[in-house]
Amino acid sequence: MPLGPDHGRNELTARSPRQPARALGKELARLLFDGENQAAAHATWRGLLSDERFHHQPGLTSEQRVALSYDRLRQVNKAIDSPERLARDPERLAALHEWTGVVDGGLCTLASIHYNLFLGSLLDHETAGRDLSDFTSMRRTGTFLCTELDHGNDAPALQTTAALDRATGGFVLNTPTAGAQKFMPNTSLTGGPKSAVVAARLLVDGEDQGVFLFLTPLSDDKGHLPGVRVRRLPDRTGTPVDHCLTAFDHVRLPPEALLQADHGRLGADGTFTSTLGSQRKRFLQSIDRVTTGKLCMSAGTLGMARASLVIAVRHAHSRQISGPRRGLRVPLMAHRSHHGRLLHALALAYAMSFLHRSVLARWVGHSLEDREDAARLVAVAKGWITWQARAITTESRERCGAQGLFPVNGISDLPLNVEGGITAEGDNLVIWLKAASEMLFDRQGEDRSASGSSLSDRTLTDLSFLRGLLAEVVAGWQTRARDALRQGPAGDPLGRWNEASAPALEMVSAYACLQAADAFTAAAARAKTPEARRILEELCRLFLLQQLSAHSGLLLADNHMTADHVRSLWPTVNGLVARLAPHTMELADAFDLPEEFLATVPIASGARIGQEHCEQPGGEAGRS
Fold it and tell me: Which residues of the chain have pLDDT under 70?
């Protein structure tokens, strides 16, 4: 059917990208940013985006961009009342990453290393008599050296050693092989003097006591210290960071270099004691900050995903293209093929945001008995959120066309920066495989929603029905993984796991979606206005149907859906998109990016790269 001249006007809200958010957007923002906690956790970091020092700076070399990230890290430090309190507060620490990742992926990385992995590790161990002022003032930048060239995801097998020297009570830090070089830490001279916490095997009289952390100065104003060997690595994808290979040649450390706590300490006579008999448990306790790091990676990539959508949605409202009749211009957002994709991404971003808040609260409030389950949920959420962030930033960049390729438009670096979050603090696939192995024989699906209605009476607009279907997906993939494991080759553990791993990973993925759906519906229930509750419930339906469509064959085969349900999937989704289309700007505005920042992003403020030269298409060649 031909499109009429007013196509899109009855479906989309005609708003300028600069028009302030309405009450709906403000209520959605309140829910997205944890309500009454919004100012305490987010206001300081959000304010940084309005500072011109955090805006795009064109024409910089790779080395200049790295130096800029360190300069910005010092600006962040000036905005902090207490770096120690920040390092001890997972909510504020994660919020820092949500906002800094938007403007500078390198800054996001450096902040995570300095405040969480370095300073946090120091604070998690005994600090009596240890002066931290060099690090809290940033006279010295902190870094974290764990992963080795030959030992990444199998870091418990790392080879760097710290041997007790009984004559001095100190330690000798050494890199015994080329494969034991610390891989990728930011240990160059850029950014000023640095110290590190180094993961190394504690050797007491030649006996390996496990991996612990050692505070190690790396450089001063004159260069790297004796015995510290640093070689710069090539630039990686995304915003550059000064990644290096780092080795130690019998570097002597004082007795207080060892970070001690109940899981491992040395007495004055060199006697080693530990409350943990397992070396693996000692290692995991030493690097416990990696769990908070996973929350930071989720937060950083989540902020990137939301920013990419704000830019893409604003561009789609302001960018005019040829309409169905000669001389008629319509916004990109008038097309279902355009706004439909962005709405699916918006629904996903809301689900990611609510899941992150829920998981963060679970980690902050966990008990000792609940710690293992809470840490697993953090890992599952990190994998899911960072992978979805990759999909969203890529989709958003594509929806901006060629304009999205220019860094000044604030979106081209985001998909590349997300890649770092996918790998950092535990490669996503590896941490999901660990979670899958632990969840395989848990009781999944016991919370499936029961209903007295017959299956044919349930509709795809019923949120409880959709949520129950997703729980069935989790249980269905768990059953298939269990069956595959049992039917695998006898006497071959790896062979059996190879058979089960694919359905087990599907189980973890569906479980993450289920947790996100529960967080989504809980947020909708907290809405203070009927309009916000209705919009969130519609958006949650869109999210759930988006997830369920990939599993409709399994649900149909297991008699949890009917053929009519499957046939009605697309019309139901299409209807939801049509109803939500007029609210795309409010949904994006709720991500609360400051107008001062968006004004520096041409396509987010109604402009385009090259537009300023339209009156002189010849450029330099056009001069007489």
Answer: 1-21, 444-452, 612-624
